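Q: What does the assembled structure look like for these inputs?
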Amino acid sequence: MKERLTEGHLLYGGDYNPEQWLDRPNILQKDIDYMKEAHINVVSLGIFAWSVLEPAEGDYQLEWLAEIIEELYKNGIYTILATPSGARPKWLADRYPEVLRVDETGHRNFFGFRHNHCYTSPIYRKKVAQINRQLSNRLGEHPGVIMWHISNEYGGECYCPLCQHEFRKWLEKKYKNIEVLNDKWCTTFWSHRYQSFAQIEAPSRRGEPLLHALNLDWRRFVTDRTIDFAKMEIQAVHKNGNDKPVTTNFMYDFKGMNYAKWKDVLDVISWDNYPTWHKGSERETALDCALEYDRMRSIKGESFLLMESCPSATSWQSVSKLKRPGMLHAASMQAIAHGSDSIQYFQIRQSRGAVEKFHGAVIDHYGGNDTRVFREVTALGIDLDALREIQGSRIHAEAAVIYDMENRWAMEDSDGPRNENMYYRETVRKVYEGLRAMGINVDVVDMEADLASYRIVAAPMNYMYRDGYEKKVREFVASGGTYLTTYWSGVVDECDRCFIDGTPYHLMDVLGIRSKEIDGLYEGEVNGICPVPENSAGLQKTYQVSHLCERIDVTTASTLMTYQHDFYGEEPAVTCNAYKKGKAYYVGADAEGSFYRDLLQHIVCEGGICNAAKESLPEGIEMTLRETEDNRYLFIQNFNRTKTKVDLSHYPGELLMGQREDTIPALGTIIIKTTV
Amino acid sequence: MKERLTEGHLLYGGDYNPEQWLDRPNILQKDIDYMKEAHINVVSLGIFAWSVLEPAEGDYQLEWLAEIIEELYKNGIYTILATPSGARPKWLADRYPEVLRVDETGHRNFFGFRHNHCYTSPIYRKKVAQINRQLSNRLGEHPGVIMWHISNEYGGECYCPLCQHEFRKWLEKKYKNIEVLNDKWCTTFWSHRYQSFAQIEAPSRRGEPLLHALNLDWRRFVTDRTIDFAKMEIQAVHKNGNDKPVTTNFMYDFKGMNYAKWKDVLDVISWDNYPTWHKGSERETALDCALEYDRMRSIKGESFLLMESCPSATSWQSVSKLKRPGMLHAASMQAIAHGSDSIQYFQIRQSRGAVEKFHGAVIDHYGGNDTRVFREVTALGIDLDALREIQGSRIHAEAAVIYDMENRWAMEDSDGPRNENMYYRETVRKVYEGLRAMGINVDVVDMEADLASYRIVAAPMNYMYRDGYEKKVREFVASGGTYLTTYWSGVVDECDRCFIDGTPYHLMDVLGIRSKEIDGLYEGEVNGICPVPENSAGLQKTYQVSHLCERIDVTTASTLMTYQHDFYGEEPAVTCNAYKKGKAYYVGADAEGSFYRDLLQHIVCEGGICNAAKESLPEGIEMTLRETEDNRYLFIQNFNRTKTKVDLSHYPGELLMGQREDTIPALGTIIIKTTV
Amino acid sequence: MKERLTEGHLLYGGDYNPEQWLDRPNILQKDIDYMKEAHINVVSLGIFAWSVLEPAEGDYQLEWLAEIIEELYKNGIYTILATPSGARPKWLADRYPEVLRVDETGHRNFFGFRHNHCYTSPIYRKKVAQINRQLSNRLGEHPGVIMWHISNEYGGECYCPLCQHEFRKWLEKKYKNIEVLNDKWCTTFWSHRYQSFAQIEAPSRRGEPLLHALNLDWRRFVTDRTIDFAKMEIQAVHKNGNDKPVTTNFMYDFKGMNYAKWKDVLDVISWDNYPTWHKGSERETALDCALEYDRMRSIKGESFLLMESCPSATSWQSVSKLKRPGMLHAASMQAIAHGSDSIQYFQIRQSRGAVEKFHGAVIDHYGGNDTRVFREVTALGIDLDALREIQGSRIHAEAAVIYDMENRWAMEDSDGPRNENMYYRETVRKVYEGLRAMGINVDVVDMEADLASYRIVAAPMNYMYRDGYEKKVREFVASGGTYLTTYWSGVVDECDRCFIDGTPYHLMDVLGIRSKEIDGLYEGEVNGICPVPENSAGLQKTYQVSHLCERIDVTTASTLMTYQHDFYGEEPAVTCNAYKKGKAYYVGADAEGSFYRDLLQHIVCEGGICNAAKESLPEGIEMTLRETEDNRYLFIQNFNRTKTKVDLSHYPGELLMGQREDTIPALGTIIIKTTV
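A:
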């Protein structure tokens, strides 16, 4: 499939909206000339084009699009063809009000925005299926069309009676008996017991927003409902026998959906990456991107597509900075380094009006090819052309970090020790950074993942243990894996119901400890953790901890660090327990990043994981390894604002990008090829 | 009644929700064992249990509760039996939508939350009365049941047509004639005149939120409506001849109701105290608690019950800290010191799910008795057992601070010199602290209180003079009392209508001054007040003032202090006027706390009030006196985080708690018993 | 007309609400005595009096008002008679619900507030016309009535079906064809194309809030609808042949309406000025007031009325400070200096109740004439009496600053380089301050203004070029004018649609530059601009720039300043281009105020504009010039908190106010009369 997609190229291009310029044929022609000049070989067409494709009900107007696809194809540019369901035409909303969403207060929205339609509405489903089939019939077999772009950035939820009905059916299928639900949801609290599934209403700030299990199941239902809608869309484009691969574009750090559930729905994972470069330090932004890239790659464990990114400044940030020279190149190469087989932009040409008119584009309102952005886009196009052999290569990781969306939903919704911020994602990032500092590939997976193939699994703040998780961990450690977990783990089950008789639930023996109490620290308040002399992990410094400190009882574990202050001063804070063939580490408090770097350096070295750097990489230096059956491609990038010293003599091989010098320049990328 | 309640014990226990564990009889049995171990002698049962007590309409299931009450009783544990009206079952809301509240925008809520029911709805009242009678008939006469806990933390308001109708009736009863209302409410402003009571609508941000007199009467109505509902509940439990005492639990610093109006409705005042220890300094938190305790005690002028408190960390604060060792003991003893005859917790056993699942409890999810919290709870239980003779003793105060909820509503609602914050409660607290620093008992009353029994009455920021108040003050001073009042007093009448012809209304002669203008100061902006040489109060320092400065005309008063800066520099700021047998002080500006301490030290010493310390107590030291006909119990507590020097040799007698040493340890409590 | 208005007096008085005191005839009598004592010669009557004028439908009660007008007139006090449409009576809203507004979510308001009525409702219009005609018939010809005060502070909007229908008609009239609208609004973006005008809905956060062209046209419609309503009101009072002049009172920095559109609707511009003196520095507050005064004067290019101001503290600010001694006088004289022919207060007598009861008044609740405020009001009355010859004199300006409300709406609504704040008004103010520092009169106009009469036009941040604007600028410069404009100009057309092929649109040749990219800077982030050696404007300092920096291509312009830092360091930042007989300056970044002072000093001196000070005036010193055919009146005011040195020997003539000394005292005003 990958080959058919790209015929051995890395894809390069972006969203293109010629329907905005149909009255200016010269602009369409100029765009193609510019695209060729910039080495662009793919565009996404048809996103939000419904009102032009079907200007009145049943009046399908697809010829203009057919001509453009053909014209592009003749010029060597492929099309990723979108279904237009991301925004509905006005006539549809006017004639069939049920297609508009109802919010949690029970009021139906007016027409407007993008995703403002009910994913349950039979009429909306029917109309979407009809236009999808039209597109598939007329355009799906064109050789220029290489993939389906199903809708656009799915998101949001609807509380209409149809959706509420589906939610009740979903619950009934899951729990079978209402008393099972009452028990698992703990509805006796505040007298919220249900007598039948028919009584259940979706969470609402005008009704019940505080029943965590209800909230959690609602969020799961929203993911399932969206997937159900997407499957309907896919079925419609494939109905006539068309079997081109399908994707849909995911969003950055989007909490509204559990993307992991899409694993088997899509042929290719793609996503839109809009980091805020030049705000904090570039290296922190790059770290955040890396985490998301690895998370996206880990959904299917395959290379993915960067479906959207910005060639210049965005228009929606509180302050939109121009991308500094070199930033576009470095940010794009990072995508490739982490497993992307494409660089695509929103957008090829800027729209003249409406909300995103100032969002950066390859071709701006001025319309020339003599702009700084166009030149940088072109230079990158040439580079990507030269790297085409990398397309399709894979990333193999022996370490994984668990970052679980359902766990996040549960933790952030629950009233607990710190309602202002639990810092879950930040903690995941510190652990991820600790592993990445050793130059190893890292998968970012959720609790459903198979752990058997890893040598190290780090699972910070696993508040919720999803069904069967603790069993999987036990087996992983028993078989020789190294497991690292932290405070606020194993506290509740899948219904956010507290485990009784001690936590972390069913892993107290594996970890050799029991959690007793957890203390919230105010912002700015700190404690420290101090090394036990001659501890087995070789830790020697005192580190700062903040936000959350757990008091633990140690049973079989050995204590590596103890608390420095407060009434639990000198009590154990970090422990390590040998369990069968493996080891299990427990970190009791929210420690600063350097603690995780030091502890994980020990763990990685002890584990002897391949492609690890000999020692911690300098801050801001990223290293990843892509490989095919024949070759290995080592990427080294510098996300500091100054040149940084890296000893490349450790890494022999052929240079595909960059220079063999003592230092890597600011925002520079080195690619070293070796043969297996 | 008190004796029947407790048979000579201080009550010790808390909310207990066995309905959450009916499927685990071993847990119920273990709980009783643990309660006995912790010297617990009372639980509150049935709060929020409606959906278990009446799982379907008319299907009353009370036997499980009867069995538990009996089992507890056999083990020496009494029951405070709750009516379940704090949250209604789903079937009730589904079948009778009128029981759910309507908000000020006119939309009816969905099912959810706790108090989300209309206090007017005839159906809700009927259903509550029915279950209350069921409880009373079946369980009310059980010897283990010592008191009725009517509903739980009443609060909130409903804007449904039924409530609006009651509001109009309430207004018509109060004003008789619509022209009287138009006149008192000043409806001519902005053309808001009414022609009939039928035209009046409750305040709403979608309608009229700015007519202060309407807002004020609405709040009064909400209090009256809630009381009317509570009386209906009480009548229902007493219907069959049951005459056990009734209480309902009040909340900390709750602005939604005028608790003073409940004086004659309840047999016992009880309340729930959830301070945020370990956030600011402990002594400031303790001061705030002291103010609330004294306010609760002053409602009926009798000892009261602490109905809820937290044995460990709460779950609803932005950051929930563990209670440090010793804090539980000190905080609990403060309740006793201020007149409580109980220490009760929310909750005996933590619930497994729903919003409060992480709220601290005597028995946590782990479920053992080998926890720090359980050990501290047990130690306190032993101490309370040893102090049982204190139960029922009273607190006698010769000084009072006026803190009036209606005054607060009016002042905070009115547009005036400082809309961002008037600091009413903070000013009350400074005055209260000034008196308490002298070690005297202080009542905290509202303007309805009888002042005749006091020697000192301090009335800061009495913006609104409730009907007859100024007459009462005049008589108080004429008879020899000392009265202290401040800027922004006597400005409006009960309808928030300004007094004309000079303020403070009708007390200008008593005070010997007239208020001319009031200046708002920005946050951070300050002025000073300087002592007049050889002033009669012996004031010698310059103090900082902020927020509000009044310019006054002095007639017969003598000036004690003058302003330091600004265009009113050197004008009078603090005055004292001799009026008949008494004295009246006027403070023109929002002075720092030490000013009130110094001025009130002079006033208290001049008044020779009994049980006053010889000199100001050290900061953080609290002193109160409880007494019976035979004995006096002096409480001295240290709310500093370090040991503090107090010369106990001034206070002879028998030590019931603590040691006779030079210092009191941090969070330490001394109790000295003397015989009258 | 002006003469008939005032018979050669400056008007002095304010809003007066005797309807609040009809039951106290002694108060009415005392008020008149006090007004005479204070030299008050005019009051505004009848504002918000509808419920007294028509207490029940059709029951008109005008005699009380007739008597008061007569009584005032006999005492030398004129009446500005208001129509009462600013707030409707309760019976009207109860009987005809359509008169109440509907908000953007589609919910109709309840009764309350002031402007809470639909400007479209036929019933509301009919009822207003009826009472207006009643007032006109009974009172309009009274010799004491000198002007109509139409409604009060018009504002707000209604989204009811009637208004939505009018909006669609308004759009159809403007665009004729729906495809024209689709094209100009760029509705193809996000598939928002309309098939007919009937499909269009007003913007709403529950529907479409992000279609900028829709938002913009809605705001234009709201202005037009309000004007349409006002015209109906005016027609009603003039129906019986009455032709007394009409005004309505505008508000300070009010963004809800484009006041410039009222130019031909009103006979006299009047407005309400409520600055927050004593908050920041007085001189900054004075500068802000000056900008608004000049904007108001420039609407008709005639003297105007200050209809409301506060004699003391307001009641609605977060902190309301007393006006310090001298402030009332200085603030009032500033109004006269900028072209006002009146000083009027809200309010003569404080109301006893409702939301504005603590708003400052000439006569306060105390009710005496022995107050500080009353004494200052009286002193000012005497001064104004002595200045009566100034009435009707005009202000002539040779420089203009463009401050355009439609431009502001567009810029602040659009997503762009800085969504948190573009600082449009602040930048206008810096440019205005630069010109005013040279002591010249400045008009503040919008893009519809005729530019031909000016020698200097400064147009900062002209994001939107309204139709024909660029042509007007071209002609202005070609004819010898000096034009100064900045970054973020000429970007979009009247429908917020981006210009293509380069910006500033159609003025690139006049300016000799093209704008390439714009960079947003975070708050606190700065760059600098450095002078090119021997630049033609004589600039010699380095200035700080922030918020926004544009990169430009210079064609024919000469570069005056270059950027100091960042990747565009040393690129052009400020340029000057000679175009035909004139010059055009371009400022690329948001420069600090002193840059504009220095650059504009050069431009003003080069232009040799009359009445310019020889050099920049000291900070805090304001200078304006009013003139008649015979005389010139130079006003010099000191808005510093200390006396300030000004060399008055440059300004010979007769002193009408103040002293010829080396310095002007704090808050002092000098008026120098010379004969032409």
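Residues 337 and 635 of chain B are 6 Å apart (CA to CA).
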